[in-house]
C-alpha cells in the first residue's frame, strides 16, 4: 500500500459487525483520505458504490456455533442395574458417562487421573463406605462435586455425607429427571438434595441450637457454623457471606474458642455426638 495512495495512510481503525438475518456488514473506519469503506456480504452479493468509499461483496462464511460439551460423569456403585440405567440415560445427551466403577478402591485408583466433572457415589460399597471414599477423593480433588446415593437414608448418613464434602444426596429409587437435575446443579456449584432429606435439615437447625446453647455466639459466628455444617470450605464461606477469607478465619478462631474446640472436625464430632 503506497503512502498517500488511493487506499490512504491508515493510522487508526475500528470494526463494527452487524448481523441481520443472513446479511453481515463490516465497517472499517480509518483516518486518512478515505472516510470509510464498507464490506457487505448479503443474499445477492451486490457490489455497490457510495460516496467516500466502495461496497464490496465478500465470501464471508457464517462462523460455526460452538457445540455444547456435556459434563463428564463417573459412577461408583456395585449394582449393575444402576450402571445400565445411567448408560441408557446418557443417551439423552445431558452428560457423558466416562467412568464406571464397582468398588471404592478402583474409583480411588482411576478418578484422580480421569478428573470427571461429577461423581455419583453409592453409600454402601463392598470394600469401604462411600462416604469414606468421597472424603478421600475430596482430599485429592477438592473441587470435585460428588452426589451420594442411598436406598436407606437417615440423618446421620446425610450429615456425614455433607461433612465429607458431598454436594448432592439422592434417595433410591432415583428418577431420570432427578439424576439430570442433580448433575446440572452440582456441576454449576449448587447443592442437590432429595426432598426426603428435608426433615434432616430441620433436625440440623435444632441440633445447631443444642451445640451453641449457652455459648452466646454472634450472628456471624452462627452463620459460619451453619456453613461448616454444610461442608463448605473457607473460600466458599467467604463468598456465601460476602466477606473476606481473612474475616472468616477471624470469626472461626473466636467460634472455636467459644465452643472449646480446635478444628472444624472437633465441631462436627461434637455435633454428631448429639444425633
Question: How would you describe the overall organization of this protein?
Answer:
There is one protein chain. The chain is of the alpha/beta class and 275 residues long. The protein has three domains: 13-57, no CATH class; 72-193, Rossmann fold (3-Layer(aba) Sandwich); 201-272, Winged helix-like DNA-binding domain superfamily/Winged helix DNA-binding domain (Arc Repressor Mutant, subunit A), CATH 1.10.10.10. It contains ten helices and eleven strands. It has helices at 80-90, 104-114, 130-140, 155-163, 176-187, 198-212, 219-229, 234-241, 245-259, 264-272; strands spanning 13-20, 23-30, 36-41, 48-50, 53-57, 72-76, 96-101, 118-122, 146-150, 168-171, 192-193. The protein has a six-stranded parallel β-sheet, sandwiched between helices. The chain has a five-stranded mixed β-sheet with strand order 1-2-3-5-4, with no helix packed on it. Helix 1 links the parallel strand 6 (72-76) and strand 7 (96-101). Helix 2 runs parallel beside helix 3 (130-140). The protein starts with 12 loop residues before the first strand and ends with a helix. Residues 1-63 have low confidence and may be disordered.
